[in-house]
Structure formats: structure tokens, C-alpha cells
Design brief:
By secondary structure, the chain is an alpha+beta fold. Helices cover about 25% and strands about 20% of the residues.
């Protein structure tokens, strides 16, 4: 139990040091042009993945860690899959990383294991390195929005966001009618606040800091200890992440 909370609390620790990882073939400066992102699904009931996510959470589901550049020449090990499963099983519910496959009992674990093989092992990462990308975040305040998928809602006259990715790389938008329109986060909890972001400010304001404080912490305040402080102290905290997104109570 203590180890589970150790990893959970690491979500909010922002380090100023770059963690040095061993690599047989370190990535060159060209990696700065590659996209690496921690991807999430929002529970939009009118999108395929969003409706499946909504069976587990009214706020978010983790989709995985995506990258397109090899990190090292590490040779895959025969026990990589089982080692990743050992790390995964106590932790996957912490960040709602569920499998939507019918054969996976309680939302685990074939999808998550395949995700590691496809986007971790294949790119030279050990089970622990890939696990850390998912559950032990660093430099939260520097993780920008690099991917968003949305659908147009005629009734709302807004773009409804159903997938987001945070990390490094050029921003990609899929499915939105116009970035000049407003974007809304479909949090389906009736007690949740509604967040509406202008399209031309989307990449600027919807970053990992905002998503952590306003979405993840809203469902899982035990991961965010500062929420237990009194309101006046939190208002003065440098970790306050209200940003410029418009909020309204449901």
C-alpha cells in the first residue's frame, strides 16, 4: 500500500533536475522535433472511446504514452511483459488506465501490456522506464498540449474535446470544425465544473498543469495534498492553476 502511494504522490512533485537514464544509443537533437505525449481520453458519451471511458470514470481515462523516436538500442528481454505487468497491476487504477477489451477482467491488462510492447519496448525502453513515463511525471509545468481530438456539437455550437495528449512536439488537432470556435471538456459528473476554452487559446491554456489540477485532482483529490489546505492558502499557492479558461458551475 505504501509503495502505491509513493508512486501516486510522485505525480505532483516537480523536479528541477533532469533524470539521467542509461542508453546504449542516446537520442540526438533531432528528438526535439519528435512527438512524445501522455495521452488521455475524456468521457464524451458520443465518442467511441469516450463512452467506454465513461463506464470507469466521469472525468478521464489514461490512454498511454506515445512516442515516435527510438530511445536506445536496448535488446528486448523475454520477461519484459511479465515485469511490466508486475509494475502495472497495483497502479493502473490510480490514473484510470483501463483496458476496454472484453476479455480483460476489471479493466486489466492485455491492452496495457500491448501498449508497452508497441510504444515502450519497441523504442528501446525497459518496463520500468515506460512505467515511469506513465506514473512518475517530471517537469509537469513544461508539458504542453501536443494533441487533441474533438467533435463538433451543433447543439452546443462548440467543439467537444474527447482526447488530449501532453508532452513535446508540434501540436496536432483532429476532428474540430474550426479552431476559432470554443472548446469544452466533457466532464460528466453532475458536480463537476464546466471548462470552456477559446480555440485560439487552447494550446496555451490546456496544458498538463491545468489538466492535473482541474480534471485529475477533481476526481482524485487524495493525489493532490494541497487541496486539503484551507481555501485562502490555496489561493495564494504558486500551484494554483486557474489559468484563463472560463469556468461555470453545473
Amino acid at each position: 500500500m505504501m509503495s502505491r502511494f509513493y508512486y501516486a504522490f510522485s505525480l505532483i512533485i516537480v523536479t528541477l533536475l533532469v533524470i539521467q537514464t542509461t542508453s546504449a544509443n542516446p537520442p540526438s537533437n533531432s528528438s526535439l522535433r519528435a512527438r512524445q505525449s501522455l495521452d488521455f481520453i475524456l468521457p464524451d458519451p458520443l465518442s467511441s472511446l469516450g463512452s467506454k471511458c465513461g463506464k470507469f470514470s466521469q472525468y478521464f481515462c489514461l490512454m498511454g504514452y506515445w512516442q515516435d523516436l527510438k530511445q536506445s538500442n536496448r535488446t528486448p528481454q523475454v520477461n519484459d511483459r511479465e515485469e511490466f505487468r508486475r509494475l502495472l497491476e497495483p497502479m493502473y487504477k490510480t490514473l484510470n488506465w483501463f483496458s476496454f477489451r472484453d476479455g480483460d477482467e476489471d479493466g486489466c491488462c492485455s491492452y496495457q501490456l500491448d501498449n508497452y510492447i508497441s510504444y515502450g519496448q519497441r523504442f528501446g525502453m525497459s518496463p520500468e522506464q515506460y512505467f515511469n513515463k506513465l506514473f512518475k511525471w517530471e517537469r509537469i509545468f513544461q508539458q504542453k498540449l501536443v494533441f487533441a481530438r474533438a467533435r463538433w456539437s451543433k447543439g452546443l455550437c462548440m467543439n467537444v474535446i474527447n482526447q488530449v495528449g501532453f508532452g513535446h512536439g508540434e501540436f496536432r488537432m483532429i476532428g474540430a470544425r474550426s479552431t476559432k470556435k470554443m472548446f469544452i471538456l466533457p466532464l460528466v459528473d453532475p458536480e463537476a465544473k464546466i471548462y470552456v476554452v477559446p480555440g485560439d487559446k487552447l494550446a496555451e491554456h490546456l496544458n498538463l498543469q491545468f489538466f492535473l489540477f482541474k480534471v485529475i485532482c477533481a476526481e482524485k483529490p487524495h493525489l493532490c495534498p494541497w487541496l486539503l489546505e484551507d481555501e485562502s492558502k490555496r489561493d495564494k499557492s504558486p500551484q494554483n492553476a486557474d489559468g484563463d479558461a472560463n469556468e461555470s458551475e453545473t
